[in-house]
Amino acid sequence: AQSVTQFDSQVPVFEEAPVELRCNYSSSVSVYLFWYVQYPNQGLQLLLKYLSGSTLVESINGFEAEFNKSQTSFHLRKPSVHISDTAEYFCAVSDGSSGGSNYKLTFGKGTLLTVNP
Amino acid sequence: DTGVSQNPRHKITKRGQNVTFRCDPISEHNRLYWYRQTLGQGPEFLTYFQNEAQLEKSRLLSDRFSAERPKGSFSTLEIQRTEQGDSAMYLCASSPLNRGSGANVLTFGAGSRLTVL
What we know:
In chain A, the strands form 3 sheets. In chain A, strands 2, 5, 6, 10, 11 and 12 form a 6-stranded mixed sheet that branches. In chain A, strands 3-9-8-7 form a 4-stranded antiparallel sheet, with no helix packed on it. In chain A, 37% of the residues are buried. Helices cover 0% and strands 51% of the residues of chain A. Chain A has 117 residues and is mostly beta strands. Chain A has strands at residues 3-5, 10-14, 19-21, 24-26, 31-38, 44-50, 56-58, 64-68, 73-78, 87-95, 106-107, 111-116. Chain B is mostly beta strands and 117 residues long. Chain B contains no helices and 11 strands. In chain B, strands 2, 4, 5, 6, 9, 10 and 11 form a 7-stranded mixed sheet that branches. Chain B is globular. The chains are: A mainly beta (117), B mainly beta (117). The A-B interface holds A 4, 6, 9, 32, 34, 36, 41-46, 49, 51, 90, 92, 94, 96, 99-110 and B 4, 31, 33, 40-45, 48, 56, 91, 93, 95, 99-101, 103-111.
């Protein structure tokens, strides 16, 4: 069984400040890792993913996450946030041991990022 | 392609009534998933289809819940004899079948919010 822990349920920051949203996972097999973002009254949108290769992955809007196998972590970072980044962020894991044939995502409880002016 | 479409977006019902939600996935996606999201929690897996075959059901899916995907296109999720504990956001997602980086990337709909009075 897999599990995801997002330690912070809420993270308030000021605009243009850096932010880190923490995510740790537990799995007995290799994993694929994801960050999804949910804006108010909208569905989940994929922010970035780690499937293989470089452990540092980036999104088009300035977020990045680094897969750390030894620490079983996939923390999300942004050096300077905007008010429009206010949303709930979900870390998720799926089984990476079957070469892409597995499908089920296990999500963390989410972190609400609130960017204040 | 307009993405994953879910209807209705909101449903308010009285306890004991039956409700049905519909999901139209991205047309070329063979896999379709249902998740449930309650307040303060991340999405939880309910069930999964590959084409018209329902391949897995979570223990969260009691016998009051039934999901179908006739002809491998749209899917319906029916809840019979609703209870207040069924109040949640029901999320549908789809993904392609082919192996590779796309198979593990789920595209979510905006969700159907159920309120049971």
